[in-house]
């Protein structure tokens, strides 16, 4: 089934190219930092919020976090990590106890987010995105972030006109910060920019100007653009929708396994709602995610797609007789953005290994994965929330 087919919604779409972007808490932390917020959405700040409120000290998750903090554990504030340890560790807690403890935290976390992400930040972020065309730059010029070596081995840039770029953002965050940032408003996204055709953007095929390459530097393709955002784990505006918990157990004991009460993929209905999307995604992008096992369902689905040759979306096989084989097929690729500004930076190889570890599978040598290591000083296009754009970047159109 795959992604929604938009090829018949416009006049001249040659092929639809689907991109799935997975965005974690790293984006919210970045945005709040860039807009001068005193606290951000990290769990350690949530713990402080609960402590100031004198939250129920008998809550078993709160107790676990407190004990880990006193013991000096690096990940003491990870709520979902605490759930996993209590469910599977030496101090085994019943699933029913954890469910009730999480319900108590659910409403508190929503109120915490209301305090951390006020409407004033959303207003300012949205205005800046529109004024600086941040959404359009991210969607149309992100290939700038690939190194020349990565760009040369990527098959994603084609240099062809009439392609429809369909972006689906899987926002793991509960806040609307990403939604606000990526919204294609009338200021930066002019659907009436062409007089005689309905193309609505120019995709930048070689924005870094990599040479030598078959696509000339700064090459543009007259294209179509679609973008949407989903929140599989709930939204801040609906407190009871917030999902905390674990990945679905691989050794689940039927439909009555009590651990399913805590499994985010089960309650988000991942298989029914999202599994089909991996069937025709040409490019996966991960940004701001820890690549931990709590989101294993998603990482495993990506890993299973990499290295698998697919037919291009809505290009009939009989049409391929007149085209080269490469034009009719594609092999999905993955871009991982990894923030290396902390005290324990990783190499590209270590990030790749971390992804497959999080996916719960062995590294597949056929998988084409581009790891982009960055920090606060790195020139970057994708999901940038500062006005300092790369100096060599052409204007977006």
Q: What percent of residues adopt helix (DSSP H or I)?
A: 25-40%
Q: How big is the Rg?
A: 22 Å
N-to-C series of helices and strands: EHHHHHHHHEHEEHHEHEHEEHE
Across the major sheet, the strand order is: 3-4-2-1-5-8-9
Keywords:
single chain; 14 helices; AbiH; DUF4917 family protein
Describe the structure.
- With about 400 residues, the chain is of the alpha/beta class.
- The protein folds into 2 domains: about 5-35 and about 120-235 and about 270-375, no CATH class; about 45-115, no CATH class.
- It is built from 14 helices and 9 strands.
- Helix 14 links the parallel strand 8 and strand 9 (about 370-375).
- It is globular.
- It starts with 14 loop residues before the first strand and ends in a 23-residue tail after the last strand.
- This is DUF4917 family protein.
Write the layout of secondary structure elements.
Elements: E1 15-23, H1 25-34, H2 43-52, H3 60-70, H4 79-88, H5 95-116, H6 119-132, H7 134-141, H8 148-153, E2 163-171, H9 177-182, E3 201-204, E4 220-230, H10 264-267, H11 270-274, E5 281-287, H12 296-305, E6 310-311, H13 325-328, E7 329-330, E8 333-339, H14 348-359, E9 368-374
Brief digest:
With 397 residues, the chain is an alpha/beta fold.
């Amino acid at each position: 089934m795959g992604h929604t087919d938009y090829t018949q919604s416009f006049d001249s779409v040659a092929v639809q190219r689907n991109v799935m972007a997975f965005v974690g808490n790293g984006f919210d932390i970045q945005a709040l930092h860039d807009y001068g917020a005193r606290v951000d959405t990290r769990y350690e700040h949530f713990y402080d919020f609960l402590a100031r409120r004198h939250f129920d000290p008998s809550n078993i998750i709160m107790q676990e976090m407190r004990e880990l903090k006193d013991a000096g554990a690096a990940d003491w504030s990870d709520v979902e990590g605490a759930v996993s340890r209590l469910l599977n560790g030496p101090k085994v807690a019943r699933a029913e106890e954890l469910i009730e403890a999480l319900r108590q935290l659910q409403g508190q976390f929503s109120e915490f987010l209301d305090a951390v992400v006020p409407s004033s930040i959303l207003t300012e972020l949205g205005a800046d995105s529109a004024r600086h065309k941040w959404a359009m730059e991210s969607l149309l010029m992100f290939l700038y972030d690939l190194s020349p070596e990565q760009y040369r081995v990527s098959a994603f840039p084609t240099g062809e006109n009439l392609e429809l770029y369909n972006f689906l953002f899987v926002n793991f965050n509960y806040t609307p910060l990403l939604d606000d940032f990526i919204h294609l408003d009338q200021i930066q996204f002019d659907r009436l920019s062409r007089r005689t055709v309905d193309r609505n953007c120019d995709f930048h095929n070689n924005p870094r100007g990599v040479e030598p390459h078959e696509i000339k530097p700064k090459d543009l393709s007259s294209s179509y653009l679609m973008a949407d955002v989903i929140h599989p784990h709930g939204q801040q505006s609906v407190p009871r929708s917030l999902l905390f918990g674990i990945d679905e157990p691989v050794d689940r004991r039927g439909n009555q396994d009590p651990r399913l009460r805590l499994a985010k993929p089960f309650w988000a209905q991942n298989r029914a709602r999202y599994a089909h999307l991996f069937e025709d995604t040409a490019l996966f992008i991960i940004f701001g995610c820890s690549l931990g096992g709590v989101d294993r369902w998603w990482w495993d689905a990506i890993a299973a797609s990499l290295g698998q040759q697919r037919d291009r979306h809505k290009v009939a096989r009989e049409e391929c007789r007149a085209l080269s084989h490469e034009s009719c097929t594609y092999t999905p690729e993955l871009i991982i953005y990894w923030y290396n500004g902390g005290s324990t930076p990783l190499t590209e190889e270590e990030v790749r290994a971390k992804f497959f570890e999080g996916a719960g599978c062995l590294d597949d040598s056929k998988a084409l994965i581009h790891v982009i290591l960055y920090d606060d000083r790195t020139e970057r296009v994708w999901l940038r929330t500062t006005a300092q754009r790369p100096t060599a970047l052409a204007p977006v159109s």
